[in-house]
């Protein structure tokens, strides 16, 4: 699988809600940089993060553009998040089914055909405005 195909498979699994398939594309020691948050390490932390996100949000990513560099060690993706804020997340405004549309992106490191780092980025102030903060 090429790096481009790996990133596309990662997002296809996300959109399908197939989080086990998504996690299978990650190294055991994956590093996950959460937007406006900390750095998490390992598949177990990533799985817990995804379970939490699935509880609070319903999201579908569209308009995916994947960019890779020639060595196959790094990639980036840009996409639009179509979401519903379905359950209040700690420290954030109350959820009431608010819909949001948010441009976002991610950066990846690749090792041995798997994703070893995921860094997500989006405009939190824009999301807060859209959910009525």
Description of the molecule:
This protein has 133 residues and is an alpha+beta fold. The chain has a single domain (3-130), classed as Nuclear Transport Factor 2, Chain: A (Roll). Helices cover 31% and strands 44% of the residues. It contains four helices and six strands. It has helices spanning 3-16, 19-24, 43-56, 124-130, and strands at residues 26-33, 39-41, 57-68, 74-85, 98-111, 114-122. A six-stranded mixed beta sheet has the order 2-1-6-5-4-3. A hairpin with a 2-residue loop joins strand 5 (98-111) and strand 6 (114-122). It is globular, with a radius of gyration of 15 Å. The model has no long low-confidence stretch (mean pLDDT 96).
- Ranges with pLDDT <50 over ≥5 residues? none
Instruction: Work out the strand percent.
Output: 35-45%
What is the second-level CATH architecture? Roll
Strand order, largest beta sheet: 2-1-6-5-4-3
Largest sheet: 6 strands, mixed
CATH topology (level 3) name = Nuclear Transport Factor 2, Chain: A
Output the structural class: alpha+beta
The helix content, as a percent range, equals 25-40%
E-strand count: 6
């Amino acid at each position: 699988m090429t790096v481009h195909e790996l990133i596309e498979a990662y997002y296809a699994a996300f959109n399908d809600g197939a989080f086990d398939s998504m996690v299978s594309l990650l190294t055991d020691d994956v590093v996950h940089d959460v937007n406006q948050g900390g750095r998490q390490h390992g598949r177990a932390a990533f799985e817990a993060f995804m379970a939490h996100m699935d509880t609070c949000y319903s999201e579908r990513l569209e308009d995916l553009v994947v960019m890779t560099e020639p060595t196959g060690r790094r990639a980036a993706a840009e996409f639009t998040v179509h979401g519903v804020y379905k359950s209040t997340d700690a420290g954030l405004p109350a959820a009431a089914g608010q819909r949001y549309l948010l441009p976002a992106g991610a950066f990846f490191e690749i090792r041995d055909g798997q994703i070893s780092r995921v860094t997500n980025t989006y405009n939190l102030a824009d999301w807060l405005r859209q959910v009525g903060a």
